[in-house]
Amino acid sequence: MDNLEYIDDYFNGILNEARRAQFEQLIRSDPAFAEEVAFYISAGRVLRQDQAEEKKTRFRALYEQGKNSIPSRSLHRRLPWYWAAAAVLIVALGAGLYITSRPAGPEKLADTYINDRLLSLPVRMSSTPDSLQNAISLYNDHRLQEALAGFERVLAKDPGKIPARIYAGIVYLRLKDYDKSLQYFKILQADTALYANPALFYQSLALMKRNRSGDAQVARQLLQQVVNNDLDKKEDAAQLLKNW
């Protein structure tokens, strides 16, 4: 387990309920982990979260340096581990306002949105499910590769099937193939006849997740364009910008 990512996910609200409970149990039962959390909190006061690669590298180096500098069994020499764990929780709660109010990086924001909104797709109730509905059912069963094949078969027969294009782009986003996801949403963007077109919003998500140099800036611009022009997913775009 990468403790830095695990700790970071906890304080950014990414973990589900079971993993949050596991995290808090580790603080109570594992003195070394409790010290890592304490170091994370103290480092977070100095080093503002930033998803730029240079800052991420600096933070990881600082984290590893601090973690490796902790003497073996130092907790036990200073005070009983359960008091140290309690102290960490108190510090975490005291720092909670600071930590949770920090602007979230683009990858974390996109992760949260995907986990909240894109883990399932709407299914149309019908006595005779068609190929698109079958692919949606596969997606909702977390069979992403099979769902993708289904959406692409629909598009091969009918390139104008807009929901299949949107959903195929979302599957590529979930599969972390961000370039392919962007291709699908850029094709969708070119469809000027579409009344409600979420292409710019989904492009911004793919860019936030890819997070190459310049991607975050372009993603923000796209989200702002969605809001300013009252486009599809305007409210979602406004919320992402607010939390960024």
Please tell me about this protein's structure:
- The chain has 244 residues and is mainly α.
- It has two domains: 100 residues, no CATH class; 134 residues, Serine Threonine Protein Phosphatase 5, Tetratricopeptide repeat (Alpha Horseshoe).
- The protein has 14 helices and no strands.
- α10 packs antiparallel against α11 and α11 runs antiparallel to α12.
- The longest helix has 21 residues.
- The chain is globular and about 60 Å long.
- About 9% of the residues have low confidence.
Concise summary:
This protein folds into 2 domains: 3-102, no CATH class; 110-243, Alpha Horseshoe (Serine Threonine Protein Phosphatase 5, Tetratricopeptide repeat).
Keywords summarizing the entry:
mainly alpha, Serine Threonine Protein Phosphatase 5, Tetratricopeptide repeat, single chain, 244 residues
Distance between the termini: 27 Å
- Count of DSSP H/I helices: 14
Annotation, overall tally of beta strands: 0
pLDDT averaged residue by residue:
80
Would you tell me which CATH topology of the largest domain applies?
Answer: Serine Threonine Protein Phosphatase 5, Tetratricopeptide repeat
The CATH class designation of the largest domain is: Mainly Alpha
Largest sheet: none
Unreliable segments of 5+ consecutive residues: 45-52, 72-79, 97-101
- How many structural domains? 2
Radius of gyration: 22 Å
Percent range of helical residues: over 70%
Give the second-level CATH assignment, the architecture of the largest domain. Alpha Horseshoe
Structural class: mainly alpha
Beta-strand level of the residues, as a percent range?
A: under 5%
The CATH superfamily of the largest domain turns out to be Tetratricopeptide repeat domain
In N-to-C order, the SSE pattern is HHHHHHHHHHHHHH
Indicate the overall shape. Answer: globular
